[in-house]
Amino acid sequence: MTRPSVLVTRPDIPPEGLALLRDRCDVTVWDKPEPVERSFLLENIKGKDALFCMVTEKIDRELLDAAGPSLKVIGTMSVGHDHIDMAEVKARGIKVGFTPDVLTDATAELVMALLLMTGRRLVEARQQIYNGGWAGCAWSPLWMCGQGLAGSTAGIVGLGRIGQGVAARLRPFNVSTILYTGRTERPEAAALGAQFVPFDELLARSDFVIVTCALNDDTRGLFNEAAFGKMKSNAVLINASRGGTVDQEALAAALRSGRIQAAGLDVMTPEPLPPTHPLANMTNCTLTPHVGSATVKSRTDMATLTARNILTGLDGAQMPARLC
Ligand code: NDP
Ligand code: DGY
């Protein structure tokens, strides 16, 4: 019996996931650590039954045309799916699996880390040890002061799985109020003590604005000059969704002018952000390189879930986490 063929776009997939695929399929793997070259992808997707991909791969009409009618299943090792042209895959009857839930804890923890790093200026403070700042004014009362979570108002944009994970973690830090906004009120909000408000009200009231929404046509560029103009001057913006939700020029201007206090970003445009980018060189901007889900457990669970999505999709069985 012929085995299904699968193209995998990274060599360092957690082995548990790759082993599941190798057991039942012929697997072709891109063998370099950097994102797969587009030309390799277009050439090697031809005639494959399935694709195991990452957020770095654009799944568009060109790629689907190159694959041809054999392609039945795409498993993306991510919960975000803005890199996939969903209308096009649906029109072709291709099944798509993704990785919700298994990365929620890791990503919510990263948001907490960014909140504390950015609000309390921890990267800047660490630098003072080496740049003479500490020697110059050790324990001067207002030196290196930032803002804490206790007593603050935190506003969450997108109270989905990760947003809820953040809300639950904010409570023990004694925030006074949790606001959230989204397309609709969420039934889970009551148990989290989160209050639904319009976007503009969230901006006007929040000391910490936390972005955990999906990137789509409504959220692209949501954080623009007008939005920063509505935020409190002490506001700290945290973005763990996608870089595309933020107009980075407007953010850099807002940080430079003191319109808002600080930003902590796990996601940017482009990725990797060049180290010369203005946002990478501001003391009130803390960057992490898209590591929200980067725990060994989370990435291992994401890999096995992606493999299971692909295998069940190929079998015509129910996929554990199906997008379409
Ligand atoms: P969910 O689908 O559970 O949540 C998505 C949220 O986005 C929903 O609450 C939804 O709101 C909200 N949303 C969608 N459109 C809008 C809009 N127009 N205005 C406001 N809110 C909107 O997904 P997850 O919580 O699992 O993941 C969220 C996102 O986080 C992913 O799409 C991905 O981009 C990003 N992510 C980043 C990671 C990282 O490493 N930094 C790791 C994992 C995910 P509503 O309730 O109204 O539908
Ligand atoms: C996702 O899953 O969408 C992240 O961005 C990567 O974990």
Question: Could you explain the architecture of this structure?
Answer:
This protein is α/β, with parallel strands linked by helices. The chain folds into 2 domains: 5-102 and 296-315, 3-Layer(aba) Sandwich (Rossmann fold); 104-287, NAD(P)-binding Rossmann-like Domain (Rossmann fold, 3-Layer(aba) Sandwich). The protein is 36% helix and 15% strand. The chain has helices at 15-24, 38-44, 61-67, 86-91, 104-119, 122-131, 133-137, 161-170, 189-192, 199-205, 225-230, 248-257, 296-315, and strands at 5-8, 26-29, 50-53, 73-76, 95-97, 153-157, 177-181, 194-196, 208-211, 236-239, 262-265, 285-287. A 7-stranded parallel β-sheet has the order 8-7-6-9-10-11-12, sandwiched between helices. The protein has a 5-stranded parallel β-sheet with strand order 2-1-3-4-5. α12 links the parallel β10 (236-239) and β11 (262-265). α1 (15-24) packs parallel to α13, α2 runs parallel beside α3 and α5 (104-119) packs across α8 (161-170). It is elongated, with a radius of gyration of 22 Å. The model has no long low-confidence stretch (mean pLDDT 98). It binds NADPH dihydro-nicotinamide-adenine-dinucleotide phosphate and (2R)-2,3-dihydroxypropanoic acid.
